[in-house]
Specification:
Blueprint (H helix, E strand, L loop, with lengths): L1 E2 L5 H14 L5 E3 L3 H7 L5 E3 L5 H11 L10 H5 L2 H6 L9 H8 L1 H10 L7 E4 L2 H11 L3 E5 L9 E3 L2 H14 L5 E5 L5 E10 L3 E9 L12 E3 L6 H17 L3 E11 L2 E8 L5 H9 L3 H9 L17 E7 L20 E7 L5 H7 L9
Parallel strand pairs: 2-3
Antiparallel strand pairs: 1-14, 4-7, 5-6, 5-7, 8-9, 8-11, 9-10, 10-13, 11-12, 13-14
Helix pairs in contact: 1-12, 8-9
Length: 372
């Protein structure tokens, strides 16, 4: 019942290609990952083994003149290209650039949450150390500091006083100049959960809700997570479902969306929303035996609606998403877990019930101390 298998965005890209081909499209994949190229080199009609940078992408687009580009299936790296695609008039299939940008713009996103009566931790934005220090008293420590538009929680850190805050903000701005920093009050002791859903702009189907074992604040890529949740009551589950549907529709999502939640005192707060395929989509698809990426791609292409699909997830017991670390290959890396992602892959562990010894071993991590 233990299946160790890598789960990456390559899965999303490959299955997106299959779905587009079923809809009659010639497909072109751009990927610089040699592992994908070695195993799936003949999946797409054309494959460009090129770095995923704008200059390379734009040269390919000018040469191929595609009908449109899908950015939802390549993680944050692909999503960051959306602004230039929109600026140059290149069609983005699925969720629009405006909606993608709204989810990243903390001010606009929080305004949208307020309009939909959805709670979120107190926050502020800053572009200089002085601005960050000025809002620290309003937010109260501990504060989660994170740069915008980054991959894998790069630069994220929980700070507990003004000295730590100033030091970290200076460090971020030195590495990522002109970045807008997001400062959130950290909900200490909260439970973290996340939901993935498919939306066609009118209808929403939640493909899976997962509960994290580690404390809220450990990056979602580094945490063990159970599908379905094992310790969330009916009230909390209903809040998660309601918030997910409201946010997906408010963002005019066409395709996939991932939303992360912090749960404290039976109240569900929004941490963030990503209108794209998250790393948990392949996990949920394999656990439930459903081709969710294929469904979502056909919706992005305008070929189908959510209501066209007969969803029939099958899972006996629980599936646990387990992070895979490569600390033996990187001996100088700080092994303490925190909001910055350190795992290099994922695997699936299937258990029949919560009485499984493996679950008890993992559940002990809920008492772990969080690295600031």
């Amino acid at each position: 019942n233990r299946i160790g298998q890598g789960i990456e965005f390559d899965y999303c890209c490959v299955h997106g290609v299959y779905a587009a081909q079923e809809c009659g499209y010639e497909t072109i994949m751009i990927n610089c990952n040699p592992e994908t190229v070695s195993t799936d080199f003949d999946t797409a009609d054309k494959l460009y083994f090129e770095p995923v940078f704008w200059e390379h992408i734009y040269d390919i687009i000018r040469h191929e003149k595609p009908e449109g580009v899908i950015v939802q299936l390549g993680g944050q790296t692909a999503l960051k290209l959306a602004e230039k695609l929109d600026r140059y008039g290149i069609k983005i299939m699925g969720t629009s650039y405006q909606a993608l940008d709204l989810a990243e713009d903390r001010g606009l996103f929080s305004k949208m949450l307020l309009e939909n009566d959805i709670p979120f931790p107190e926050f502020a934005t800053a572009t200089t150390p002085a601005e960050a220090l000025a809002v620290a008293d309003k937010l109260n420590f501990p504060i989660l500091v994170r740069p915008s538009y980054v991959l894998g929680g790069q630069g994220m850190k929980i700070v507990i006083n003004k000295d730590e805050l100033e030091e970290h903000v200076v460090d971020i701005l030195r590495k990522i100049p002109n970045n807008v920093l997001l400062l959130d009050h950290y909900l200490d002791g909260a439970i973290e959960a996340e939901a993935d859903a498919i939306c066609d702009g009118e209808n929403v189907y939640i493909i899976g809700i997962m509960e994290h074992i580690e404390p809220c604040g450990v990056h979602s890529g580094d945490s063990n997570a159970l599908l379905p949740p094992f310790n969330l009551g009916d009230l909390v589950m209903q809040q998660i479902k309601d918030h997910t549907k409201k946010i997906a529709l408010a963002l005019d999502t066409v395709g996939l969306i991932n939303i992360q939640f912090a749960i404290k005192d039976e109240k569900v707060y929004i941490i963030e929303a990503n209108p794209r395929a998250s790393r948990t989509v392949p996990f949920i698809a394999k656990a439930y035996g459903e081709p969710y990426v294929n469904y979502a791609t056909k919706i992005m292409l305008g070929h189908n609606k959510v209501t066209d699909f007969d969803f029939n997830p099958q899972l006996e017991g629980y599936a646990i998403k387990q992070p895979v670390f490569s600390f033996n290959k990187f001996p100088n890396v700080d092994k303490r877990l925190g909001p910055e992602m350190k795992s290099t892959g994922e695997s699936i562990l299937f258990i029949d019930s919560l009485k499984d010894d493996a679950f008890y071993d993992l559940y002990a991590r809920r008492r772990m101390y969080l690295s600031k």
